[in-house]
Amino acid sequence: GDVYKRQDYPCSTCQNSFTACTSCVTGGDTELFIMPRDFECILSCPPKHYIEINRVCRSCAKNCEACSFKEGCDVCEAGYKKWNKVCHRNCPFSTVDVDGVCTSCSPKCLLCEATPSYCTACKDGKFSYEGECYDECIKGTGATKLKHCLSCGEGCDECTHSEGQFQTTVCTKCSPGYSAAETSPPLNCVRSRRLEAYAYVTKEVADKEKR
User: Fold this and answer.
1) Could you give the CA distance from residue 57 to residue 173 in angstroms, rounded to a whole number?
2) 43, 50 contact by CB (below 8 A)
3) What is the C-alpha to C-alpha distance for residues 114 and 121, in angstroms, rounded to an integer?
4) Residue 82 predicted with pLDDT over 90
């Protein structure tokens, strides 16, 4: 419609027979902004809005709490994380939430948690253990099918881990100072002196039963 000059404060120009402000009075100590939906002059843009050219308040993108332009969010709403200036409910693959910002995992990590350098899955076929990546599982741990190294338990140097609803650990080699009564896995590794004591008691019981 036609643009009109409006004399009463704070609207400077308007359209539609003086009912909709298109610009506000400028100068002095007070700076005013236009709300395009209401066509009113206001002292400041409301939350979740940014200032466009000609001092017009525009809405931020969806799920954005504060922004400086339409496509770039500065702060996301509660429950959302920022990734590439866009707000997401969950961080994308191979990123981790760091103070509300989705941050890429370290180059060595396929997946990470808590910090970008704490790997829960590794690249290049390596094994993850306590946030680090290894070419093979270290002594005292055994690999899962997902290439995670899990502890074998006390007294066990090498083991395997089954996956499924109930994960089980099978020891295949005892640690120095530990022995097993079994000759094939799964081994029940106990301290050697305890095993000797167990063997002695077992022999005593067997001898008494023969008498």
Assistant:
1) 70
2) no
3) 13
4) yes
- Residue 199 φ/ψ, nearest 5 degrees: -65, -40
Instruction: Report pLDDT digits (tens) over 169-203.
Output: 899 999 998 888 788 888 888 887 655 555 544 65
Residues in the chain: 211
Cβ count near 195 (within 10 Å): 17
d(CA 112, CA 135): 18
Sheet of 11-15, strands arranged across: 3-5, 11-15, 20-24
What is the β-pairing status of strands 109-112 and 119-122? antiparallel
Q: For residue 33, give both structure tokens.
A: 């902004």
> What would the 3-class secondary structure string for 66-91 be?
EEEECCEEEEECCCCEEECCEEECCC
Question: Which stretch of DSSP H or E encloses residue 195?
Answer: helix 192-210
22 is written with which tokens?
A: 């298109």
Q: Dig out the tokens for 205 from the structure.
A: 């019981």
